[in-house]
Request: fold
Amino acid sequence: MESVITQIKSRRDVKTGLLHKLADIAREEGDQEQAELYANHAKNVKLYATQQELEALVSAETKAVTEEVKAKEGVTELTHETFERIINAHQVDLLVMFYSSSSTKYAHEVLDKLGEEYKSNPDLIIAKMNINNIDISGYPREVPGLHLWRCGGHKQSSYYYSGPFVLDNVVRFLHQNGID
Reply:
């Protein structure tokens, strides 16, 4: 992580240094307009490099959270914050069972079996979220409810499972949506 930021800073310093030298040469030759263009370009290079540094930091932090959650075998209990970070990372697929305190024990057992069955899949996190502990806006109101987020690059697809909580049916749902 630090090497990425070091590389960004190094490239930034080389580019801005050259642009400042070109601006100085243009000033010496009396071309104030060209000197100003080089100086402004140097500022833009610096701003762009700073943006890249921030993106690298956020990406590394999000990747760390995703890897930490993925390292837990089976089913992971998500907080709203962890859920948002994983969804925004676009690095792994995420199957979440939204539940409440009134959800049946059977639904949790099915999810635990899914967690066991898919624990070796490095591209899938199986998790659950208690809707009693989060701001419910934007989340399924029907509980228990299964929601799958497929993540590929910066593109994301979302699928809601509305069938019965039967292991074979949920596995079929996953297969139909590209999860092996």
